[in-house]
Amino acid sequence: MKLKTHDRLVEHIADDLFEFANADTDNSEIAGYSNYSYWRSTVQVFLKNKTAVLFLGVIVILLLFTMIQPVLPNQKDPTFIHINPETFMQFRNVKPGTEFWFGTNAIGQDLWARIWSGTRTSLLIGFAVGLFEVVIGIIIGTLWGYVKKLDRIITEIYNVWNNIPTTVILILLTYIFRPSLSTLIFAMAITGWLSMARLVRNLVTIIRDREYNMASRCLGTPTYRILTKNMLPYLVSVIMLRVALAIPMAIGAEVFLTYIGLGLPVQIPSLGNLVNEGRVLMMSQSLRYQLFFPAIVISMITISFYVMGNAFADAADPKNHV
Amino acid sequence: MSERKKLLEVKNISVVFGSRKKAFTAVDDVSFDIYEGETFGLVGESGSGKTTIGRAIIRINAITSGEIIFEDERISGKIDKKKDKKVVQDIQMIFQDPMSSLNERAKVDYIVSEGLYNLKNYANDAERKKIVDEALLEVGLLPEFSSRFPHEFSGGQRQRIGIARSLVMQPKFIIADEPISALDVSIRAQVLNLMNRLKKDLGLTYLFIAHDLSIVRFITDRVGVIHKGRLVELAETEELYNNPLHPYTRSLLSAIPMPNPNYEKSRKVIFYDPDQHHYDIEAPKWVEIKKGHFILANQPEIDTYKTMLESNIKGE
Ligand SMILES: Nc1ncnc2c1ncn2[C@@H]1O[C@H](COP(=O)(O)OP(=O)(O)OP(=O)(O)O)[C@@H](O)[C@H]1O
Ligand SMILES: [Mg+2]
Q1: Which CATH architecture has domain A25-320?
Q2: What is the pLDDT of residues B182-202, one digit of tens each?
Q3: Is the pLDDT of residue B36 over 90?
Q4: Which atom, in ligand 1's list, is nearest to the CA of B15?
Q5: Three-state SS string across B207-275, please?
Q6: Cβ–Cβ < 8 Å for B207, B42
Q7: What is the distance in A from the centroid of ligand 2 to the CA of B61?
Q8: CATH class of the domain defined by B6-228
Q9: Residue A300, class by beta-carbon neighbours within 10 Å (0-12 exposed, 13-18 middle, 19+ buried)?
Q10: Domain ranges of chain A
């Protein structure tokens, strides 16, 4: 029965409603044209991640604020010791209020000013160490992984260097040089690049013998261009994640170094120094705010970079591009 | 026949991987010549050393002993800069897997131009673009594709991009390492036909590496059969298919399926057992058993092969 109705239906369909779609090879090649750009897609995928964008905003605001804070009106000097004009005593451990927004510390310095000054110092440390780690780590790592002749020697250097505990190197350096901002950055940088270099090296050895690299060698492409065009673009996502983590790690390391007494001199406010001062007063409930504020800033920086780094690593992977 | 010019001579090459303790001979005393304008096939099972030979010729793998001569000049071992540049330009390679042989993070424009950037043999960017466009057209792709990334293409298109990349070098000799085995069956013929057309139009010579003999018959002029790093038989393609002598060649041929049910019914797959040779008693030599037909055999085997050849001729 059903078949018959179907046949009848077919009979009533006019032929001129249809036309043949002939296979056209030229057209099939044109179809699907897109104007794909790696970086544009990367940015697009990143911007789709709302959490990451939020934290990006946090970091941008934080960065801008630390830079403009000193020129804003009513700001105090972070190292000036405020003295009560009536009693001629220092404003010690004043609670947060209208005069001292975040209160004062044990010797009467304005915490609000100190926190932003400290954040500025710590971010500088973070970015400087991160930048050094990335540049040196990538250069050494790619050469280490790609140039077979260098493999032995760099491996030897790495093994020796890596077996000296970082703390020992840092102690030595701080004894040799006077503790200062540049000493600290230098000390953290010369130990930090090792793990970055090893990571890059491992990634490079994985992709070194892929056929497209053979093809480049058959075409006589010089090594530096194989490294920059064939290798590095594949490492972007992993490297970005590492960079994002290197910055908060350096900031954290500064806190740790200050704690064990190898950090910056107390005259230079840094998050490390602030946490250290706050830590001493932690047991007294009324003074906890002195630890509370720097801890919040450190947490914000760490979380923001971590979330952003992960989101960017995902976004930089072309598998996630639509 | 004999006046034909030898383009490439492979003389007793061996390739040994690893250090003394764990040395592994991937290619063992292999010799063959490739004449200008021909397609020379190299067949053998997986791991027999075909890729290693191809890579030794293009100098990705260093040879342990022997010599490789291209256009009457030695190209193996240390060679000077000028010759190096010439060899890079003259010898090119098409890779097996189009999915991994293109740089995913570069546009087609860069991929195809890569060799040009190295040679710097163009006057300005417009001329480079023109060469790229022509190469893309030559392999049946549109010039517009140059602004795209490899992941936007199908396997067959990617393989053609790889061919275009080697064509801009204006090579004389192309090593094609299983160029179609990673492709969908439906587009294999497309790539093979393209290779054949380019060969005619541009006067190319090919070394065509494959592991199954059915395609080799369609595309090659002469074939060498390789087993565990040693060449066991070499002849013109038709000769090899009509008079396969070495048991390994015959086992390979017996494994080819035919679209003929009557044949298939009677097809017997021959298994090759290397122990049948008794090479510990008398070592084999590489001999020309018939004009242009070479085989690896010791004296008793040569005698049996000769009688086989004679009975084959009588039988025809
Ligand atoms: N770089 C290397 N180091 C050590 N051994 C290698 C290396 N390259 C290849 N070999 C070995 O040499 C042998 C021959 O390998 P080759 O790739 O030439 O085989 P093939 O004939 O091309 O095989 P297939 O058909 O699978 O491509 C294999 O046993 C392989 O494991
Ligand atoms: Mg192979």
Answers
A1: Orthogonal Bundle (1.10)
A2: 888 888 988 999 999 999 999
A3: yes
A4: 12
A5: EEEECCHHHHHHHCCEEEEEECCEEEEEEEHHHHHHCCCCHHHHHHHHCCCCCCHHHHHHCCCCCCCHH
A6: yes
A7: 13
A8: alpha beta
A9: middle
A10: 25-320
What is the band of A10 on the pLDDT scale with cuts at 50, 70, 90? low
Written as one letter, the residue type at B98 is P
% pLDDT > 90, chain A: 32
B19-27 long-range CB contacts below 8 Å, 24 or more apart? Answer: B25/B229, B26/B52, B26/B229, B27/B52, B27/B53, B27/B56, B27/B63, B27/B229
Q: Which residues line ligand 1 (CB under 6 A)?
A: B 17-18, 24, 26, 44, 46-52, 211
B119 in contact with A, Cβ within 8 Å: yes
Q: Does B96 touch chain A (CB under 8 A)?
A: yes
Q: Locate the domains of chain B by residue range.
A: 6-228, 243-316
CB contact under 8 A, B96 and A29: no
* Residue A32 in this model has a pLDDT that exceeds 50: no
Cα–Cα distance between A186 and A183 in angstroms, integer?
5
What is the whole-number distance in angstroms between the Cα of residue B46 and the centre of ligand 2?
A: 7
Which strands form B65-70's sheet, in the order they lie side by side?
Answer: B24-35, B6-17, B65-70, B73-74
Ligand 1 atom 2, closest CA: B17
Chain A interface disruption, residue of B52, B57, B81, B104, most A CBs within 10 A: B104
Nearest CB to A220 within list B85, B100, B157: B85
